Amino acid sequence: MKDERRFPRAHINTTYCLLGKSGAEKGKAKNISPVGVFVRTDMSMDVGDRVHINVILPQYHGSVVSQAEVVWICPKQEPCGETGVGMKWIDLSLLDVFRLDNFVRHCQEA
To answer: Average per-residue pLDDT in the chain?
Structure first.
């Protein structure tokens, strides 16, 4: 299956912390791009939910702190690979867009 995403993403296994309507959680992010992030979670969320999230970017790239909106969900019973949610960034700062773009490029070159 061809990946038709508009923006490249980096496959990662890094820590995130989020705060949403169901509470707070710490877990692992699976991939990230300048437009969104996929996090592994069992937390109950619905498409359209908004959270505050902090994702640590490894290798001295800092972290991204932003609001994000759930755009798709992969529940346990689905064969999409891992239980989690895909989120798009909301009000991402220009510095974080730049940081994410550099991080993804760095990961692709490695």
So the answer is: 86
